[in-house]
Specification:
The chain has 267 residues and is α+β, with helices and mostly antiparallel strands. The chain contains 7 helices and 6 strands. It has 2 domains: 32-159; 182-265, Sandwich (Immunoglobulin-like). Strand 3 and strand 4 form a beta hairpin.
């Protein structure tokens, strides 16, 4: 009888243990390490496709389809940023840069293979540069690695860091400049026959800016463009200032608003 009781007690204990082990584990949001691991998986998935596809002879439609596939492989692996709860605030900032690059590349797919080189540079190429900055930090400070099969892909990507850093800094400067620049009527140059609007541009980056193309739209109170003027600034050294002056046809009437559109070009 005692033997039966011991057997029943042992059976009950095993059952209880089995019941506990079968309960679903409570898992929190992916960790910082999970994020880095998923970025690695995303890069490998993207490079696996890209390395096995020769896009040089593709039409615009074929190239856009291929780029969509490459980008999706990466984004599917890493997932949305909102699913991660970053403990390292510095890592979160770099992750923001990384996701900004992905978003820009997604926006830029529509320009792939077209003659719209300006928008290609502002989206697809700029997105590449943001990703290059982020991947450099992930590899240097957060232990990102890839399978040996993709080591050369990673090395090639990391080798673009210096160029990417420069081009991101200049583009961000241009974006901020476009929002803050103010042209005012230049009375010293204007007379009854000609009208000019001027401003001072200061290069606050650490790089020489090869050239800036400035289009200045003069609008009336209804937002209708009265006139479009332009200026071109080249070889703007780091820390230097230059005056930009745009001619305006005064016969069009007094403008209500000035809207600058600034594009950067690299040699």
């Amino acid at each position: 009888m005692k033997l039966l009781h011991k057997f029943m007690a042992a059976t009950l204990a095993v059952s209880l243990l089995a019941g506990c082990s079968s309960e679903p584990k409570k898992e929190g949001p992916p960790s910082d390490k999970d994020f880095i691991l998923n970025v690695s998986k995303g890069l490998e998935a993207r490079w696996e496709l890209a390395d096995n596809e020769d896009t040089d002879s593709y039409s615009s439609a074929e190239l856009q389809k291929a780029y969509t596939k490459f980008l999706k492989a990466e984004t599917d692996a890493v997932g949305k940023e909102s699913k991660y709860k970053f403990k390292d605030k510095d890592l979160k900032k770099v992750a923001d840069t990384y996701y900004k690059g992905l978003k820009l590349q997604e926006e830029g797919i529509q320009y792939a293979g077209t003659d719209d080189y300006t928008n290609q540079e502002k989206t697809w190429e700029l997105g590449y540069n943001y990703r290059a900055l982020a991947i450099h930090e992930f590899e240097k400070d957060y232990g990102l690695t890839v399978n040996s099969k993709y080591k050369s892909d990673l090395d090639d990507f990391l080798s673009q860091y210096s160029v990417a850093k420069k081009e991101v800094a200049i583009q961000e400067f241009v974006d901020n400049l476009q929002e803050s620049i103010q042209y005012t009527k230049d009375e010293s140059q204007s007379d009854e026959y000609t009208t000019y609007y001027s401003t001072i541009i200061e290069n606050t980056t650490e790089y020489t800016i090869d050239s800036l193309s400035i289009q200045l739209d003069f609008l009336d109170g209804s937002g209708v463009i009265l006139y479009q003027g332009d200026d071109y600034v080249s070889n703007l050294a780091a820390g230097s200032k230059i005056q930009s002056t745009v001619y305006y046809d005064a016969e069009k009437g007094e403008p209500s608003t000035l809207r600058p559109i600034i594009t950067v070009y690299y040699n």
